[in-house]
Design goal:
This protein has 196 residues and is mostly helical. Helices cover 63% and strands 0% of the residues. It contains eight helices and no strands. The chain is globular and about 40 Å long. The two termini are 38 Å apart.
Length: 196
């Protein structure tokens, strides 16, 4: 998609995805605390919450994974599929980071002609290669190896993300002191303001 190649889109997409995943994780953390039955522990669950924020982690993946921008949309599709197919393993603050690195890596392997190996993604994700291999295997089985994303599905998810990114953008006008013009630009700016 051409829109994804726009340099301003990916930072917004990463910010929105991280915000969305943070809300989901926090909500599931609350549910986890009040649940009377024991929770299933998976290979994706860490013993503690990682100290890095979801947004910083996604930015790190984006910076170092060198995968196409489409991989992040497809990774989002994969996460959605995974949570629907594995309802006993909801996204929470103990597993979201591992699910993210795994979904991006699997999407890069499926979509991109050139991608890094598991050892590289493990380094980017701050985990061991052995753990990355296990996560990939478990994630693929969790998806039922349903890795293909049709153009229609991709467009549906990307359109949703675009709409949500637009809705979340603040419509703020910078304060006058933050705008600096030279004398010619300032007089032109004043004339335009008077005309309105």
């Amino acid at each position: 998609m051409a829109e994804l190649e726009n340099p301003g889109v990916m930072p917004k997409l990463i910010a929105f995805l991280s915000s969305l995943l943070e809300r989901v994780a926090e909500s599931n953390d609350l549910t986890r605390r009040v649940a009377t039955q024991s929770q299933i522990v998976s290979v994706f669950d860490g013993l503690i919450r990682p100290p890095i924020t979801i947004q910083s982690y996604l930015e790190r993946i984006f910076k170092y994974a060198n995968c196409s921008s489409s991989c992040f949309v497809v990774a989002y599709v994969y996460l959605d599929r995974f949570t629907h197919r594995q309802p006993s393993l909801p996204i929470n603050s103990f597993n979201v980071h591992r699910l993210l690195i795994t979904s991006v890596m699997v999407s890069a392997k499926f979509l991109d002609d050139r991608y890094h190996n598991n050892a590289y993604y493990a380094k980017v994700g701050g985990i061991s290669t052995k753990e990355m291999n296990l996560l990939e295997l478990d994630f693929s089985f969790g998806l039922g190896f349903e890795l293909n994303v049709t153009p229609n599905t991709f467009n549906t998810y990307f359109s949703y993300l675009q709409k949500e990114m637009t809705l979340l953008q603040p419509l703020s006008v910078p304060p006058r002191s933050a705008i600096t013009f030279n004398d010619e630009e300032a007089s032109h700016q004043q004339q335009q303001q008077l005309a309105v």
